[in-house]
């Protein structure tokens, strides 16, 4: 085959595939260096478009599911905070209520015991209080007592009678006497009846008339009946008002 035939064939290929033919011609003319150049030619880029690109989404883009989870977590935290606020408000309310009740009890106890002390006078001892510490750290009086002397005056029924009358008034001095207060008043009434009986006996000894003796006996009987009646009333009131295990209210205590 002559060169003219090859040129004719090559010309036909070049006419059908001008770009491929051009590349082949360049490779034939330049050798290995031209072949290497064709690796980065526009033809290679067209054959493998976008080579080396992964096509993945940017890593910093948040998906809708992530945003929904974040919103749900924020709502839960807000709900927990609201519940904590409600609990704190309720605790504060309970604390303030307890403080008010303790303060009221403190005033009541101190007024009660001071009434015993004021009326009892020389026969009343020192006031004693029992305390409870409130939620604010302060001590509040919740109970109290006053020692009072109910012993008879030796050899002097008249002085004993006068003393016990004051003791009885001291026991009943508070606006709301406790069961123990009523007990002391009843004991004083009984001792007063005995003091009157002793006075009546002295009168009988000094008297020589039967009429006077009969009068003294009647007075003694009436005084004893009054004392028994007072004691019976105390027992009824004590049984009705005193809680099991004793009263926790302020009281007068006796000592001989």
| SSE string, helices as H and strands as E | HHHHHEEHHHE
Q: What is the SS-derived class?
A: mainly alpha
Strand content: 5-15%
Distance between the termini: 158 Å
Poorly predicted runs are 1-6, 27-55, 242-249
| Count of discrete domains | 2
Assign a percent range to the helix content. 55-70%
Treating each run of at least 4 consecutive H or I residues as one helix, how many helices?
A: 8
Largest sheet, described in full?
3 strands, mixed
Mean pLDDT: 73
Within the largest sheet, what's the order of strands? 1-2-3
Q: Tell me the radius of gyration.
A: 57 Å
Which of globular, elongated, flat, extended, rod-shaped describes the shape? Answer: rod-shaped
Beta strand count: 3
Briefly, what is this?
The protein has 256 residues and is mainly alpha-helical. Helices cover 67% and strands 10% of the residues.
Q: Care to describe what's here?
A:
The protein is mostly helical and 256 residues long. It has 2 domains: 3-39, no CATH class; 94-255, no CATH class. The protein has 8 helices and 3 strands. It has helices at residues 3-16, 18-30, 32-38, 42-47, 64-120, 157-171, 179-206, 210-241; strands spanning 124-133, 139-149, 251-255. It has a 3-stranded mixed beta sheet. α5 (64-120) runs antiparallel to α6, α6 (157-171) packs antiparallel against α7 (179-206) and α7 packs antiparallel against α8. The protein is rod-shaped, with a radius of gyration of 57 Å.
């Amino acid at each position: 085959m002559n060169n003219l035939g090859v040129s004719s064939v090559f010309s036909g290929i070049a006419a059908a595939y001008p770009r491929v033919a051009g590349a082949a011609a360049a490779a034939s003319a330049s050798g290995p260096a031209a072949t290497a150049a064709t690796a980065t030619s526009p033809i290679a880029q067209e054959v493998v478009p976008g080579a080396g690109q992964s096509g993945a989404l940017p890593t910093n883009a948040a998906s809708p599911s992530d945003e929904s989870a974040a919103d749900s977590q924020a709502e839960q935290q807000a709900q927990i905070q609201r519940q904590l606020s409600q609990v704190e408000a309720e605790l504060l309310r309970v604390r303030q209520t307890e403080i008010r009740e303790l303060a009221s009890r403190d005033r009541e106890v101190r007024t009660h015991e001071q009434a015993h002390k004021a009326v009892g006078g020389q026969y009343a001892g020192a006031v004693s209080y029992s305390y409870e510490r409130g939620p604010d750290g302060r001590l509040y009086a919740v109970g109290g007592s006053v020692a009072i002397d109910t012993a008879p005056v030796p050899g002097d029924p008249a002085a004993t009678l006068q003393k016990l009358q004051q003791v009885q008034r001291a026991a009943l001095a508070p606006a709301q006497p406790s069961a123990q207060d009523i007990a002391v008043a009843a004991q004083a009434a009984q001792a007063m009846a005995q003091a009157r009986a002793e006075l009546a006996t002295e009168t009988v000894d000094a008297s020589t008339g039967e009429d006077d003796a009969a009068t003294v006996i009647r007075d003694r009987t009436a005084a004893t009946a009054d004392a028994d009646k007072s004691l019976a009333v105390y027992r009824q009131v004590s049984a009705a008002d005193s809680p099991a295990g004793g009263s926790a209210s302020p009281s007068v205590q006796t000592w001989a």
